[in-house]
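Customer escalation, tier 2.

The customer says the design service returned an amino acid string that "doesn't look like it belongs to this structure." They asked us to rerun it and document both sides in this ticket. The original structure tokens are below, unchanged.
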């Protein structure tokens, strides 16, 4: 973002955690998401980057709800669901 603040929507996730999604208040583009309790971490939506190909994934998440036609044959680790946020924070300290 170059100016202003995103609009925010909060809801309770399936796990009971409060989550948020943030959007451009002008066009509605989905920009960020995350867990309210760990607001210092935001997932940045890949298509908001000028060059989405410059970002390389390190895992697949929510695999159990993937549609049948999704192809994940890249050898990356697969997670059935979102890991707990405290586990995710621990992973940030580990080399990829």
């Amino acid at each position: 973002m170059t100016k202003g603040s995103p609009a925010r929507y909060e809801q309770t996730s399936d796990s009971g955690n409060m989550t948020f999604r943030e959007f451009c208040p002008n066009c509605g583009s989905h920009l960020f998401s995350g867990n309210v309790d760990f607001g210092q971490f935001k997932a940045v939506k890949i298509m908001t980057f000028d060059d989405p190909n410059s970002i390389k994934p390190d895992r697949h998440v929510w695999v159990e709800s993937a549609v049948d036609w999704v192809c994940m044959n890249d050898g990356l680790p697969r997670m059935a669901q979102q890991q707990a946020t405290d586990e995710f924070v621990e992973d940030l300290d580990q080399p990829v």
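Tier 2 assessment: The sequence is consistent with the input. Residues 1-53 form one domain. The chain has two domains: 1-53, 56-96. Sent an explanation to the customer and offered a walkthrough call.
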